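Researcher: We're reviewing a set of sequences before deciding which ones to prioritize for further study. For each one, I'd like a predicted 3D structure that I can look through quickly. This is VLRF1 domain-containing protein. If possible, include the structure in token form so it fits the rest of the review sheet.
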Amino acid sequence: MASFKQLKLFVDKELDQCLQNVVRPFTEHVYFPETLIDPLEIEKHHHEVQLQNLSISDTLACATCQTQFADRSEQTLHFKSDWHRFNLKRKLRNQLPLSSEKFEDMEKDISSISGSDSSDDDLSDNEGSSIDGSYNACARNNPKIILTLNDGRHLSFYRCLLHGKRNIPQESQELILTAQRLPLCIHWGLVMAAGGHFAIALFERDKIIQHKTFHKYIIRAKQGSAQSAHDQKSGGKAKSAGANLRRQNMLHLKQKIQELFISLKSEIQRCSLLFVRAPSFNQQLLFGEKNSPLTASDSRIRSIPFATLRPTFNEIKRVYDQLTKMELYPQDYQFQKIEQEKTSVMKTKQPTATRKTAVDSSTDSEDKSDDETEQQSSSKQTVKKQPIIPIMTTDRKILPAEDLTTFNELFTACRLNDIQRFDDLISRLRALKTINKSPSIADILNYQTAGSFDTLLHITSERGHLKLIQRLLNEGANPALSNQRGKYPYNLSKNKEAKEVFRLFRNDYPDKYDYNLGQVAPSITMDELERQHAIERERRRQTKKRRTDKQRSDQERQLREQEEEQQRINFLALSEKEKRTLAVQVNFETNKRDELHLGRCWQCAKKISDEPFTYFDYKFCSTACLKAHRTKSKTTV
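Model: Here's the predicted structure for VLRF1 domain-containing protein, in token form for your review sheet.
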């Protein structure tokens, strides 16, 4: 197969000539419909379907795919299937759902199910008849676009150079005109912000005319998240010095970015394309506020369609070099074959844990030994730990249709904490099992759902329904059954009270279940539990008392400080003559101490020690106040 040729925009003159010779998009990578479906008819169809299904259904069904199920496990698996997700995307685009047979036929022909990746001729009338359902989906799954030249060759480059997510072309001619005008867009801007790092660069053709990078400490150490994101997630603000520093740095970073964009306003307005990389919380640095540097409605803004590293000047240059690279393919280049090879490689890749478990029984012992030696050698080279797959202790049993319906009703009652309904269902089961004892009530209560292998005890423990946990344990629900994740009901208990129910039941019935296997904590009596609760209440009372005493002492201290400040202000308001007169009066009234002036500095009015700095009848707290007072006295004289 012939190889392709790599060209650089604004550098290779051959590339400018190729862009002018573009005649049409390559049909395997882009589709523009010839006829459109009337959306009013589709909406009318959905309206009629809704009118027909106004009655409350008493069966397990999916309204999107228009199918019914025998039990809840089958319904749960359906909601996780590709068929259901595919029909959901079609419903959002006002398209009719596909049947399971038609979906399976389509799945055999395409490599991935993403809603509208099909290029099959049978589905072109229904699937690709909407622009939003064909070209937009193609743009999401293929970051590059392939255009065909008039001589049969193909040119490939990143789709974001032609349009963004908000200005998708409505016809192929518009796409071709945009590609032909691409060499005229000589002014580009690249903006990257991530993890407190910011970088911006403005390009004119292949030259950098402006660039700036800086960094602020806003990421929490060993956490990998910004302080603002942590505050939003936790619902409260941390009061540590580091948290306050990171919040302050976040404000400084915003202010610095705004000032930089103001200084570069004329150069940025001249740019034809603006490529922005600001993941997650970094969006608030560039968008969303009144004085934000950029607006989301700007048609020039494009997202960078590949992974980037930390925003630095070298990374900015690498991204620009990657965006301006284009590939020129010969006429006989097989794109479809290359894609099939890539998809087949992706399908063969499986996790190491699944490869170890899925060993074919028909392979010879020699092949097995070779595989084991290869896995041992690869495990020595790589230090990464393999994921541990939980081992199920019991096999999942299948219930008859009648008992499965009863289990579904019990499942709903446990989720909704409907105790009355649960008791009614158990009473009905007891009446039925007196006649037919296969399976027993315990088998129904310990039934494990498909997929997750959760029992009713898992559901109630995870939601913290204390009374239902007690009833299930009494009726025969086994706490030693694990789900697919290897979790036992005791491990999934929502709160401490739910775990106490298990421990109390273990004390009352020590031999009924294998509590050690179910990882239930040691048993506890009601008296011991009451004693622990009393100790916990006393501890909380003491904590509350200490908090109240501290608040009271803080209030008293504030009152004393306010009184002291008021006395100091009153003392400073006195003149020298009034201070001297009061001092003479105090000398005659030795038994009466006036805190207004006695024991205070005559310059700053602060309380002083028993041995102040004095001259004449004046008292000072320090030599500085004494010097300031003498200087003041000399100037007034």
